[in-house]
Design brief:
With 430 residues, the protein is an alpha/beta fold. It contains 12 helices and 20 strands. A hairpin with a 7-residue loop joins strand 19 and strand 20. The protein binds inosinic acid. Inosinic acid binds at residues 12-13, 38-40, 127-130, 132, 134-135, 223-224, 228, 237, 239-240, 273-274.
Length: 430
């Protein structure tokens, strides 16, 4: 029996919510291992819709253990707000159902402010972040000055840690023409919330090791997507964490042998929110069609997503860097009714055809997609639960994607409804 890691193989928003929900029903433990409350997905369980950002999907199901791993950047105030919101919907988050890694780094108000200041500046690169302070919090983590979850329980040690942090941030703020921050304000910010977090804090690596030895099924829930990975994505237009499957081990404290099956969630076309290169983007009626039909608006920020054709080059790259065993292909029904459908199979750069996205940002903007054109289908794929219910051209499209990216479709989702799924193989049973 394998544990399963779910990752996004494009720029996020591949439709992880539904797949993770489906898998979390089969899992005993659900673990977040990177990112923070920049993630956003909606789970629909027994007709009730739950919006999650920081919480692992296991929290909405009875009898599951949910874990926020050390690789996550943890905003204690966002945690309290999300807990309250879920509580109002009848979901009780208790220390029995949720554990938070003691060594996860905190997101503070100064990180959020810095994120906003940078994004609002007229100079520099505008990334189009979610404004949650994710990047600045990870900077402090690797800069070895972060305040961590465990520090909330150490009232005596906090003032010194805050001083160390402000010794970095206040000169930075002065340089940006911003007022300095008073240590007392940060202390209040932390002490006001400490009591709400500390009951959940744990040595997560140890807990997960025990659960693994006991034979529990573990679902690692990735956020964002491979092309937003700090190393493998379209840098600098990326998020500040490793979003690839390998991070499931480092970001939870379980060894890589525990990862098991890597499921790459893949949308049948491509979208991205925020700035940065997007070779197959369609700023025309096709893009509008995909955006409207696919309801492509961000769950966290409400921003309109940019839309384009399926890019097999990017997904093939994602299959390689994540070690994807199988794809969960989503939103095929959005393509229903198109006369023809294009798939990008290579890029043209300086007169040559290449088979991967160059690492250089300038070249990423210059590449021109090489398309194959497939015949579309008129019948609907929405709600199909068997291959035989799909139009022949739709099956051909799926098979061609498998061939081009080098991974089989394990699961095909044909509508937001959980039962509208064609299951080829259960990743947990692999
Ligand atoms: P940050 O993660 O807020 O720093 O944003 C960095 C980039 O990642 C921006 O382009 C965001 O739009 C993108 N991003 C962050 N989280 C998500 C997500 O959950 N889905 C899609 N894009 C995201």
């Amino acid at each position: 029996m394998a544990n399963v890691v779910v990752i996004g193989s494009q720029w996020g928003d591949e439709g992880k919510g539904k797949i993770v929900d489906w898998l979390s029903e089969r899992a005993d433990v659900v673990v977040r291992f990177q990112g923070g409350h920049n993630a956003g997905h909606t789970l629909v369980v027994e007709g009730v819709s739950y919006k999650l950002s920081l919480m692992p999907s296991g929290v909405v199901r009875q009898g599951k253990l949910s874990v926020i791993g050390n690789g996550v950047v943890f905003d204690p105030h966002a945690f309290v707000a999300e807990k309250k919101r879920l509580g109002e919907q009848g979901v009780a988050i208790t220390p029995q159902t949720l554990r938070i890694a003691d060594n996860a780094a905190l997101i503070l108000s100064l990180h959020r402010e810095l994120d906003a200041i940078r994004e609002g500046a007229s100079t520099g690169t505008k990334i189009g972040t979610t404004g949650r302070g994710i990047g600045p919090a990870y900077e402090d983590k690797v800069g070895r000055r972060a305040i961590r979850v465990m520090d909330l329980a150490d009232a005596d040690g906090l003032p010194e840690r805050i001083e160390r942090l402000l010794a970095h941030h206040n000169p930075l703020r002065r340089g940006l023409g911003q007022p300095e921050i008073d240590a007392g304000a940060i202390l209040d910010e932390l002490t006001s919330v400490a009591g709400e977090v500390t009951p959940y804090v744990d040595r997560v690596w140890k807990l997960l090791d025990e659960r693994r030895r006991a034979g529990d099924r573990i679902l690692f829930e990735g956020a964002q997507g491979t092309m937003l990975d700090i190393d493998h994505g379209t840098y600098p237009f990326v998020t500040s964490s490793n979003t690839v499957a390998g991070q499931a081990a480092a970001g939870s404290g379980l060894g890589p042998q525990s990862i098991g099956f890597v499921l790459g969630i893949t949308k049948a076309y491509t979208t991205r929110v925020g700035g940065g290169p997007f070779p197959t983007e369609q700023e025309n009626e096709i893009g509008t069609f995909l955006g409207e039909r696919g309801h492509e608006f961000g769950t966290v920020t409400g921003r309109k997503r940019r839309c384009g054709w399926f890019d097999a080059v990017l997904v093939r790259q994602a299959v390689a860097v994540n070690g994807v065993h199988g794809l969960a292909l989503t939103k095929l029904d959005v393509l229903d009714g198109l006369d023809e459908i294009k798939i990008c199979v290579g890029y043209r750069l300086n007169g040559e055809v290449i088979d991967s996205l160059p690492a250089n940002g300038k070249a990423q903007l210059e590449v021109e997609p090489v398309y194959e054109t497939l015949e579309g289908w008129k019948a609907t794929t929405a709600g199909a639960r068997r291959w035989s219910e799909l139009p022949a051209q739709a099956v051909k499209y799926v098979r061609h994607i498998e061939e081009l990216v080098g991974a089989p479709v394990t699961l095909l989702s044909t509508s937001p409804e959980r039962d509208d799924t064609i299951l080829v193989r259960d990743p947990f049973q692999d």
